[in-house]
Amino acid sequence: MANGWTPERRARQAKLIRRWLPWEHSTGPRTDAGKAVVSQNAYKGGLWLLLRKLASALRAQRRRLAE
User: Fold this and answer.
1) CA dihedral 43, 48, 52, 55 (to 10 degrees)
2) Cα separation of 34 and 17, whole Å?
3) Rounded Cα–Cα distance for residues 38 and 29 (Å)
4) Under 8 Å CB-to-CB from 38, ≥6 apart: which residues?
5) How far is CA 17 from CA 3, 10, 14, 21, in A?
6) Which long-range CB contacts under 8 A does 42-45 form with residues at least 24 apart?
7) In this predicted model, what pLDDT tens digit does every residue of 19-48 receive, in sequence order?
8) Which residues touch 5 (CB under 8 Å, ≥6 apart)?
9) What's the predicted TM-score (pTM) here?
């Protein structure tokens, strides 16, 4: 395989994971600080809003300079 995982290796890993059951030990964030951090995981950034504000400020400046 291209990623180095042979079918045998995949089967062995699947068997080990089914024995470990890692999803039963996962707890997620517990503190308010941790919850605040993970709440931003899907945040894509506010660049569009920032650019709109910048464009608005530049238009206002252009108007003032034209007066």
Assistant:
1) 130
2) 26
3) 8
4) 28, 29
5) 19, 10, 5, 6
6) none
7) 999 999 988 999 999 999 999 888 777 788
8) 13
9) 0.42
